[in-house]
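User: Mind token order:
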Amino acid sequence: FKPFIEIYDPANFNRIGLRYIDVIVRSKYGLVDIEWNNLLNSSLLGIISSDIGSSVKNFEHIHEIELSENAGHVRIVTNTVNHRDTNESCIMIDSDFAFQEKTKIGNAIKVLDDFHTRGFRLFKWCIKEKLHKAMELSS
């Protein structure tokens, strides 16, 4: 960040963003036989959290949410992806936080820190206790 400011010397930013892409690989946590609705918040999963969820092979959910206190918005894309090495079906949670108003350079870090805090809280909301405990045990 600092080298960018020193080289380009911008007067302000018109857009500030922070993006997290999390891929949940059940086998990494010994949870291969556990249904997604027992690991992730059903609000993210849509039809996968229903009684036909095990039959769903692919899905994508997109939510765009305005953040409180005029702090921007977050675009959350949840979808199935296959692990590149094992072809295991996984869930990806792509959270893209953005603030699209003219912002002074000195305030950019504050916006990014706020996004980081919100991103952490969002991920905790996305996962259920069973997955949270399994992730703690694997670290």
Q: What stands out?
A: Residues 25 and 90 are 5 Å apart (CA to CA).
